[in-house]
């Protein structure tokens, strides 16, 4: 087996179509479509709530376009087709150990560029985490970043919010207000990105027990990762009160670019 190949990339070398997994009533397939390798999400559940979520993910993907988002090629009630990204997730990189600061900054730069775009479109991602960041050709470069998985996103322009009242997300990356059920605040994405940055630099997220922190009870945060030059920026992303964080992705991006490592 070739080193550095993701299970998805390996699957593509097998006979297509290949089922890569199954999550929440949705199958993930690697396949060929119009002569190109694609990643397909296929809804197999008949549950109306899951159908509604799937439709929401398709709608939101369908109206967005940015070089660091994977474009939606085709959409039906039961199928979402994307170009297959050959590479790995940021999670797979972190599993091999902390990311070098200069490389982590390059990835953050790309993620922030996408976030500036998403927030200007009235979309908050609400599920930023290393599993939802792909790196084309396994490269830790700004232009290789692909933000994926708009399954939890909030769209200010949509007539209703599929996820209203739900407490969905991954506790490590969930902003305290998001945990309380607040939807659509771009500053929740700033918080999640701060956790993601910390996770990349340290190899672990800030809180071993994020629920203690989210519930406002006992919470022991790990030591701030090095380098020192990035620590004020990390701190500012992770405040409990959104008013104390960077107020926009553009503001955080400017701060990131002004850091000298
Ligand atoms: N376009 C793509 N090309 C290749 N692999 C992809 C692509 N999109 C997603 N993947 C892989 O599939 C995984 C799941 O995708 P995604 O996060 O969009 O789905 P999900 O239904 O939200 O599942 P999960 O609950 O695991 O997040 C990703 O972490 C990534 O490894
Ligand atoms: Mg995901």
Structure write-up:
The protein is of the alpha+beta class. The protein folds into two domains: 12-83, 2-Layer Sandwich (Phosphorylase Kinase, domain 1); 87-258, Transferase(Phosphotransferase) domain 1 (Transferase(Phosphotransferase), domain 1, Orthogonal Bundle). It contains nine helices and ten strands. It has helices spanning 7-13, 48-62, 90-95, 101-120, 176-179, 186-202, 210-214, 231-237, 249-258, and strands spanning 18-23, 26-33, 36-43, 74-76, 79-83, 87-89, 123-124, 133-136, 145-147, 154-155. It has a five-stranded antiparallel β-sheet. A three-stranded antiparallel β-sheet has the order 6-8-9. The longest helix has 20 residues, at 101-120. Mean pLDDT is 93; it is low at 1-5. The structure holds adenosine-5'-triphosphate and magnesium ion. Adenosine-5'-triphosphate is lined by residues 8, 23, 26, 28, 39, 70, 82, 84-85, 89, 131-132, 148-149, 151.
What is the string of SSEs from the N terminus onward? HEEEHEEEHHEEEEHHHHH
The best one-word shape is: globular
Number of strands: 10
Q: What is the correct CATH architecture of the largest domain?
A: Orthogonal Bundle
Q: Regarding CATH, which class of the largest domain?
A: Mainly Alpha
How would you write the strand order of the largest sheet?
1-2-3-5-4
Our measurement of the CA-to-CA distance between the termini, rounded to an integer number of angstroms, reads 37 Å
What's this model, at a glance?
The protein is built from 9 helices and 10 strands. It is of the alpha+beta class and 261 residues long.
């Amino acid at each position: 087996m070739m080193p550095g190949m993701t299970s998805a990339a390996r699957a593509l070398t097998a006979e297509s179509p290949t089922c890569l997994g199954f999550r929440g009533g949705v199958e993930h397939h690697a396949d060929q479509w119009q002569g190109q390798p694609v990643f397909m999400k296929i809804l197999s559940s008949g549950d109306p709530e899951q159908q509604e979520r799937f439709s929401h993910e398709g709608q939101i993907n369908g109206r967005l376009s940015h070089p660091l988002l994977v474009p939606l090629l085709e959409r039906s009630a039961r199928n979402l087709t994307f170009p297959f990204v050959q590479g790995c997730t940021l999670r797979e990189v972190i599993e091999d150990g902390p990311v070098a600061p200069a490389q982590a900054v390059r990835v953050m730069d790309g993620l922030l560029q996408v976030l500036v775009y998403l927030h200007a479109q009235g979309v908050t991602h609400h599920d930023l985490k290393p599993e939802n960041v792909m790196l084309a050709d396994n490269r830790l470069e700004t232009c290789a970043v692909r933000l994926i998985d708009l399954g939890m996103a909030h769209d200010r322009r949509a007539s209703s919010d599929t996820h209203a009242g739900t407490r969905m997300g991954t506790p490590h990356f969930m902003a305290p207000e998001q945990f309380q059920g607040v939807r659509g605040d771009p500053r929740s994405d700033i918080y999640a990105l701060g956790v993601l940055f910390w996770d990349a630099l340290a190899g672990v997220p800030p809180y071993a027990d994020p629920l203690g922190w989210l519930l406002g009870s006992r919470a022991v945060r790990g030591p701030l990762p090095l380098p020192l030059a990035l620590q004020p920026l990390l701190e500012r992303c992770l405040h409990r009160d959104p008013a104390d964080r960077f107020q926009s992705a553009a503001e955080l991006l400017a701060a990131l670019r002004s850091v000298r490592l």
